[in-house]
Amino acid sequence: MFDAAPPPGQNRRPLPPAQSPADGVPGPHTPMRVPRGPEKADRPGEQRDGKPRDAFFDNAKYLAIVLVAMGHSWEPLKSDSRILQGVYDVVYTFHMPAFVLISGYFSRSFDLSPARLKRLITGVAVPYVVFETAYSLFERYFNHNPGQDISLVYPFYLTWFLCALFVWRLTTPIWRLVRWPVPLALVIAMLATVTSHIGDVLNMQRLLQFLPYFVLGLTLKPEHFRLVRRHSVRILSVPVFATALLVGWWAAPRMNTVWFYRRDSAPGMGAPWWTGPVMTLAMFGCAMLLTACFFSWVPGRTTWFTAIGAGTLYGYLLHGFLRKAGEYRGWFDEAWLHTPLGEVFMTVLAAGVVTLLCTKPVQRVFRFAVEPRMEWAFKQDPAQLARERRLREHAKVSA
User: Fold this and answer.
1) What is the mean predicted confidence (pLDDT) over 338-347?
2) Taking residues 114-124, what's their average pLDDT?
3) C-alpha torsion 198→95→170→25, nearest 10
4) Residue 174's domain spans which residues?
5) What InterPro entries does this protein map onto (predicted)?
6) Cα(119)–Cα(126) distance, rounded to whole angstroms?
C-alpha cells in the first residue's frame, strides 16, 4: 500500500562545501583536521586555520610592540635629553603606522560573514569593553580620580586602537570597492586635521588620521614585503635611519611632538588650518620610508621571539597598567632615571616587561579578556556542526 521509505539521509541535501580560510583570518576547519580545543590553534608556527604562520610578520609585530613600550617609557624622561627626544620622535614617526599597516594587511579578507563578524566581536569589541572598563577603574581608584567615568564612546589611553580597529575592519568591504582607496583615505585624514569640531567621540581624530596606513595594508600583497626585504634595501636603510636620527635631533627643540600622536587637529594645536593637510602628507611619506626600512631589518626566519609575536595584543594592552602605575606613584621622578644610564635602564626594562607580557603563560591567564571564546553567545551553524561531526567520525574510523 505504501512505498518503501528511502534509506536515512538519501534525500537530504548535501552539506555546503567548506570555504578555504583567508590568509591571517580564522576560518572553518580544513578537511581531515579535527579540532581539539584552543591549545591546538595556539601552537607555535601554526595559525588558527591550520596554516603555517609567517615568521616575518610575527617578528615584525614583536619588534613593533617593543618599540611602543619603549616609547611609552621615554615619555617622562625625554624632556631632559635632546638625544632621547630626537630618538623618540623618529620612533613615533613609524612604529604605530607599521603596527596599523600590519593590522590592515591581515584584514584583507574581512567581510560581513557571520564567522568574520564573530571573530571581530570576540577579538576586538569584547576586549575593548573589558579594557576600557579596567583602565577607567584603574584611573579612578589607583589615581584617586573619582571623575573618571566608564564610557565606551570615549576611549581611554591605549584602548583607542581597539576602537579604531573595530571601525576600520567594518569599513574594509568599502575600501575593496573603491578604485583609489589609499588616496581617498589620505584625503579623509587631511580633512580631519583641518577642523577641531570632530570631537573626542571614538577618538575620531586618531581613527581618521591613522586610517591611510590601515587602508594601505589592505592593498598590499606578499610580494610588496619581499620587495623591501631585499639585501640592497637593507643596506640603504642604514643611512636613511642615520639621517632620520640626525633630523630628529635637529628638530627636537623646534617641532611640536603632538603631531606624532595624530590625536589633534591643526587648529587644536594652535597652528594654521593648512598645516594639517601638509603635515599629514609629509608624515605619511616619512612614516612609509621608515616603515620600509624597519621591515627590511625584520628577520624572516624563526627566532626566539617569533612565538612571542603572536601575543603582541596582550603586551600592548597589559603594559599600560604598569606604565600608568609608574606615573601615578612617581616612579619616574627618581633623579637617576633622568641620566643617560637611567634612560638606558628604562629602555631595557620596558622591552623586557612587554616581552614577558606577550608570553604563553600570560596569554593563558588573560585569554578570557583578550581572546574570549564566547561560544555560548552565538548561534551555532548547523551545517558547520554537521561537518565537524562527520570529520570526527571519519577520524575515528581512520584511527
Assistant:
1) 95
2) 93
3) -170
4) 52-394
5) Acyl_transf_3_dom, Nod_factor_acetyltransferase
6) 10
Number of domains present in the structure of the chain: 1
Percent of residues in the chain assigned helix, strand, coil, to nearest 5: 65, 0, 35
27-83 pLDDT per residue, tens: 333 333 333 333 333 333 445 445 678 899 999 999 999 999 999 999 999 988 999
Please give the mean pLDDT across all residues of the chain.
87
pLDDT of 386 reads 76
- With respect to residue 13, please indicate whether it lies within any of the assigned structural domains: no
- R_g over Cα of the chain: 24
Is residue 9 included in any domain, yes or no?
A: no
Cell numbers at 355, concatenated? 616581552
Q: Kindly state whether residue 367 falls inside one of the protein's structural domains.
A: yes
Residue 306 contacts residue 58 (beta carbons within 8 Å): yes
Helix, strand, or coil here: 46? strand
Q: Angle formed by the axes of helices 275-297 and 181-192, to 10°?
A: 130
Q: What is the DSSP string of 20-68?
A: PPPTTS--SPPTT-----HHHHTSTTB-TTSPBP-HHHHHHHHHHHHHH
